[in-house]
Design goal:
Structural class: alpha+beta
InterPro entries: NLP_P60_dom, Papain-like_cys_pep_sf, Peptidase_C40, Peptidoglycan-bd-like, PGBD-like_sf, PGBDSf
CATH superfamily of the largest domain: endopeptidase domain like (from Nostoc punctiforme)
Radius of gyration: 20 Å
Order of helices and strands: HHHHHEEHHEEEEEHE
Family: Belongs to the peptidase C40 family.
Distance between the termini: 48 Å
GO molecular function: cysteine-type peptidase activity
Keywords: Hydrolase, Protease, Signal, Thiol protease
Oligomer: single chain
Pfam families: NLPC_P60, PG_binding_1
CATH topology of the largest domain: endopeptidase fold (from Nostoc punctiforme)
Amino acid sequence: MKKFMMSIALAGALLVAPTVSEATVKMGDRGSDVTELQQTLASKGHNSSSNVDGVFGPMTLNAVQSYQRSTGISSPAGNFFGVAGPATLGSLGLSSSGSTSSTSTSTAVAGTSTTSSNSGVISTAKSLTGSPYVWGGTSPRGFDCSGFIQYAFAQNGKSIPRTVSQMWSAGSSVSSPSTGDLVFFETRSGPSHAGIYIGGNQFIHSGSSTGVTISSLSNPYWSKTYMGAKRL
């Protein structure tokens, strides 16, 4: 009986979330861990004291990147630039704080990854609402429509093509979009605009006149130019 109980305990240990030293705090995360990160960055002069709201958005991303550049932890060429991973958290004295990201501490079955889940992509996308439109833009300082989509997926561990036409060619057609699918529009010849479907007949995209915003597929302009949905 004792051995049986030990086996159950060991099995349960395999299902718990990573410890904070293994965790990351990234774009789209929310919670006390983000608040603590923001406060610590502010105390070191890399974040505005007014940007302490527990939401990892574009301002927090810039603060993390500023700190990583100043300490040499990462650079624009680094794979984890803008992600507060073990090295960044440890450098800030947060690796043993006991505070973990609300999006990375949920109990998960061993072997199941949630880093590139549709919910994560949408959370990241929504956190970028209000970012300006910039032709060729691929960062929160400014996005074009495909740069925005590529960025949201990349922040959740999934590499996708850069241009709308490439995304269209790479995706698998679906009769109706599900949350996280891409919706395409013919605003010029062929697929020329795209967004991420978020449910409720709505999609989030970077429009040339609006920046990152949420629109309805029922809008006369978008319904008229709608080409279809694809899954990557």
